[in-house]
Write a structure and sequence with these properties.
Blueprint: H1 2-25, H2 31-149, H3 153-201, E1 212-216, H4 221-227, H5 232-241, E2 244-246, E3 253-257, H6 261-277, H7 282-311, H8 318-326, E4 331-332, E5 335-336, H9 337-354, H10 359-368, H11 383-393, H12 398-406, H13 417-430, H14 439-454, E6 459-465, E7 470-475, H15 482-499, E8 507-512
Helix pairs in contact: 1-2, 3-9, 5-7, 6-7, 7-8, 9-10, 9-13, 10-12, 10-13, 11-12, 12-13
Amino acid sequence: MGESIYIIIAGLVGLGIGALVVGFFMKGNNKKIEEDAKEKAKIILREAEMNAESLKKDRILEAKEKYLKLKSEFEEEANKKKAIIITNENKLKQKEQVLSKELEQVKRKEAELESKKENLNAQMHSVQVKKDELDRVTSQRIADLEKIANLTKEEAREQLVEMLKDEANTKASSHIKDILDQAKLSATKQAKKIVLDTIQRTATEHAIENCVSVFNIESDDIKGKIIGREGRNIRALEAATGVEIVVDDTPEAIIISGFDPVRREVARLSLHRLVQDGRIHPARIEEVVAKTEKNIEEEIVEIGERTCIELGIHGLHPELIRMVGRMRFRSSYGQNLLQHSKEVAKLCATMAAEMGLNAKMAKRAGLLHDIGKVYPEEAELPHAILGMELAKKYKEHPEVCNAIGAHHDEIEMTSMISPIVQASDAISGSRPGARREIMDSYIKRLKDLEDLALSFDGVNKCFAMQAGRELRVLVDADNVSDQTASQLSFDISQKIEKEMQYPGQIKITVIREMRSVSYAK
């Protein structure tokens, strides 16, 4: 600020000097002008000095005001920081007081623990003294007892342990027997309840499949067209479908005979289309049969998908769905295989739900348990094992695979679902009306089964049960031992296999009962 004043003064002085110089040069012209100029220069110089002094004072005032403002701000900031420092100091003092109190409490507790420790040591010393005294007295008494009983301590302990062991075994055996008897009774009652509830809750159909199909025609004139010249049409139809076409004197009917329901259905539909079209000759027959077979395959897939939707089964491999559809055209002893499998699936789901198991997995295993019967290729394996292999191939759950393979006891059961599938299969196949069999032949087969078992030595009575699926043999306990009973069961099963024809399997149970009778007089 001071330098600015000096610069202004210097400028004004320069102006005055300039004016003097101008006046000097103009002196010769007019002296008065020179004097006026000098006077004006003096005036200008005084005004410049006055302005400079005023400007200097203003700058000094501004500087003082700024200094005072900065000083005030600094003091305010310093006061705030001082207040914060005082507050923190107060907090530290409070924490120090709290820590001091806690330290005093810790010291008191340490003193109390030390006192308790001293008391405990004194008690332990007293206990040790009493224990030593007790050991001495006990040793003395044991020595006295050994002298009296002529037994050492180890020998007496062994005898006591043996006595207690025998007594414990006797009580345990009795207790275990009671528990097992009660468990068997409860299990039997529960199993019967579950099976009865399942059968009552499952609605079944009593339809029976035949091995022949009847194709109705409007008039006997059409029979001649179907037969063809020298029988070429009927031979072509039989060769294309693999069934036997029987054209006899039956009015307005042609019989289609064959063990494969799929072939019979193909032949029936083909005949229907040929009769409607009217063009019946070998080439046309082959063309219609080929189309019909394709339609049947599509229908098989549709039946499989519809069955899965009906039962609520999801995620089956397409090949398994196709095999489920093929069950519709397969029968076992007159019982439709698809109907049987659906029935088994529903029974399995009900039983599994009653037992708290996975009902969906049980239903899946029940539907697929006979899948090996509809495998299109010839196989030497039993249908249960073949079905299990197919289920494994198409990534089914291991429990489902085991249930399929074990439902005829070909393999060992490893899950709770397996016996459920086996029981459901037996219920579905053994119920009245499920499978076709002439009553006389059925009764004769059961009678022959009982007579066969009665032909063995030592057999007193024999009963065919569960529609011929179980044979119970009662033997004479005096003439047949336990080992002989086992051999007798095997011999009866071998003779049944060689001499009789029967569906499924037959369980032979040999019962040997010893009865001792005495009379009190």
